[in-house]
Amino acid sequence: MGSASIASRRGDDSDRTSVSSEGKQGVIPGNLLDGAQIVTKSGNLVTKDGVVVSTQESDSSLSTNVFADPEIRDFYVKMYEKAKYECRHVFDADLTWSAEEEKKLIRKVDWRICLWACIMFFSLQLDRGNMVQAVSGTLLKDLHLNTNDYNHGNTIFTASFLVAELPSQLVSKKIGPDRWIPMQICLWSIVAMSQAAMTSRSGFFATRALLGILEGGFIPDLILFLSYFYTSKELPIRLSFFWTALSVTGIISSLLAFGIFHLEGAHGVAGWKWLFLLEGLITFVIGVASFFMMPASAVQTKTWFRPKGWFTDREEAILVNRILRDDPSKGSMMNRKAITPRRLWRGLTDYDLWPIYALGIIIYIPQNPPALYLTLTLRSIGFSTFNANLLTIPHTVVHIFTLLSITWLAGKFNQRALVAVFQLIWTLPVLIFLAVWPGLISNQWGTYAATAVLLSYPYCHAIVGGWVSSNSNDVGARSISASLYNMSVQLGGICATFVYREDDKPYYRRGNRTLIGINVLGIGLFLFAKAYYVWKNKIRDKKWNAMTKEEQNDYIANSKDRGSRRLDFRFLH
Q1: Is the separation of the CB atoms in 330 and 473 below 8 Å?
Q2: How does it sit in the membrane (predicted)?
Q3: Would you state the pLDDT for residue 209?
Q4: Domains (range + CATH), the chain
Q5: What is the pLDDT of residues 298-322, one digit of tens each?
Q6: Which pLDDT value is given to residue 185?
Q7: Are 430 and 288 spatial neighbours (Cβ–Cβ below 8 Å)?
């Protein structure tokens, strides 16, 4: 990519190069719009029907066209052909569209793609998160488990989830996420239902392991799928919708648990068994439906059961070209191509992404133990099984608003590290309070209120997940980096399961002091990541600006640097 592409990847709209389709007059060749004659009128470009196609003020297709430089365009045309990129036939460096067209198309993508992604994430969270509701019943007693056994089960699940992350990505990249994700959902739903047959600790551990293996990789698989349809600036807010589904699932699962536990003893079956059976059945239905709701790409929505597809030919062209102009590397690999060992090694050794992986390990630990132990804590301080499940709803509702707000702020100010760090700034004072307050446990409602405030924290996962995706700058690398980031999150989850221990209950003073230290470390890591990427960008600016135009063009055409290692790439921070 040349200097124009550098500006477009910096995330700063004011630095982007404005280029018209003919370079000067801002006139679009008439053959680009079904042969309609294009004329200028009061600054507007209109069709012969008088419908506004674009304006110089609002036409985003003209303001970020990195392919306006013929040398850059030719370089990427060859790349897309060599990679057999599935959307290459609609690539058009001269295509224009209005801001109104783009907004309408994005809304359609939100309803068709993002909404179903949220529903699929609901199925994941329902089956992996309902253990919190199950232990509010008689599960631990029936299986003769104690707190440490519960911790070990969570550790086994998280470790299995972690181990499966990268293999799942490799399978997904080979056969396509549109095939692999529905298969995952159906398979883990069967295991989720089989938990109703557990009778011992070994069965508990075995189903935890199987569930983790089958669910591992789902999140980076889905993030990769979403990246096919959204630009780097749009992806974080869509991921915030994605993670909002987690909170919505928490509310729905609490209400479901409240109702399902009323089946306690029906046909001689415990309430927690009914919970696993019925919720597993719900997610299995979602898995089957997903085979019909996930297109392979933007240009592959037409099929035997959907003959007209979701998008018109023009919408397909706009959708593909706007994505490529935001990030030309998205066409460097087809969606059903396996990741080679060389590409895998290159992704694993991309040390410039390690600061984000370090964040993944640390920043979600402070909230994890209080969340895992919430229903157990509420039961221990006197709340009934039914009330314990209902009391998880208020903070979950607040959590939705704080999550969406922090993600919106990150996009508004084009800041990731300095906005995402507010997650830890929120949790730190509450953790200090829980570590020193003498009324913990004895004050029933005070304990609940403090925990609820803690768990209402602004979740920054959407920001950081989109951050690592954008900073990968390559489809293959993005598959690997998304997996490695999620693996780092799971590793942090494993660490979190050992913070609250049996010998520290019921106050968990030692555990909360540990969480305070980890919280402070996380704040430091955010500041380090910000400083690191600013420093790297300054070094690359200095090297790039020292090159002549000929040297820059030669680098674009011939450099073997890939992904985030390219000298003409700038890290987001």
Answers
A1: no
A2: Multi-pass membrane protein
A3: 94
A4: 99-537 (1.20.1250.20)
A5: 899 998 889 989 999 999 999 999 9
A6: 96
A7: no
DSSP 390: H
Q: Which of 476, 528, 499 is nearest to 359 (CA)?
A: 528
Token pair of 139 as six digits: 């599960």
> Could you report the per-residue pLDDT of 107-157, keeping only the tens digit for each?
999 999 999 999 999 998 888 878 878 887 788 888 988 878 888 888 898
Report pTM: 0.73
For 44, phi then psi, to 5°, come to -100, 145
**CA dist., res. 290 & res. 353, Å (int):** 32
User: Measured at the alpha carbon of residue 514, what is the angle toward residues 512 and 520, in degrees to the nearest 5?
Assistant: 105
DSSP 471: T
Question: What is the Cα gyration radius of the chain?
Answer: 25
- What number of other Cβ atoms are within 10 A of residue 544's Cβ? 18
Asked if 416 contacts 410 with a C-beta cutoff of 8 angstroms, the reply is yes
Distance CA 123, CA 225 (A): 17
Tell me the backbone φ, ψ of residue 30, rounded to 5 degrees: -65, -25
Q: What is the Cα–Cα distance from 486 to 507, expressed in whole angstroms?
A: 31
Instruction: Show Cβ contacts of residue 360 under 8 Å, excluding neighbours closer than 6 positions.
Output: 464, 485, 486, 487, 488, 489, 491, 492
Quick check: 36 pLDDT over 60? no
- Model confidence over 211-263: pLDDT tens digits? 999 998 898 888 888 888 988 778 878 888 877 877 788 788 878 888 888 88
**Do 372 and 428 form a contact (C-beta atoms < 8 A)?**
no
Pair type for strands 44-46 and 52-55 = antiparallel
Number of neighbours of residue 25 by Cβ within 10 angstroms: 9
> Which uninterrupted H or E stretch holds 395?
helix 393-412
SS (H, E, C) 313-364: HHHHHHHHHHHHHHCHHHHCCCCCCCCCHHHHHHHHCCHHHHHHHHHHHHCC
Residue 461 one-letter amino acid: H
Over pLDDT 90: what percentage of the chain?
Answer: 27
Residue 516 has pLDDT above 70, yes or no: yes
Q: Which residues contact residue 50 at a Cβ distance below 8 angstroms, ignoring those fewer than 6 apart?
A: none
DSSP result, 411-423: HHTT-SHHHHTHH
Dihedral sign, Cα of residue 308, residue 314, residue 318, residue 324: positive
DSSP 8-class letter at 112? I
With a cut of 80, say whether residue 335 has pLDDT above it: no
Give every CB contact of residue 434 below 8 A, 6+ residues apart in sequence: 370, 440, 450, 451, 454, 508, 512
More confident residue, 185 or 228: 185
List the structure tokens of 60. Answer: 């985003």
Q: Is the dihedral of CA 407, 413, 417, 423 positive or negative?
A: negative
Separation CA 352–CA 358 (nearest Å): 11
* Distance, CA of 271 to CA of 385 (rounded, Å): 11
Distance separating alpha carbons of residues 288 and 528, to the nearest angstrom: 44
Q: CB–CB of 561/329 below 8 Å?
A: no
> Which two structure tokens, joined as six digits, stand for 566?
């390219």
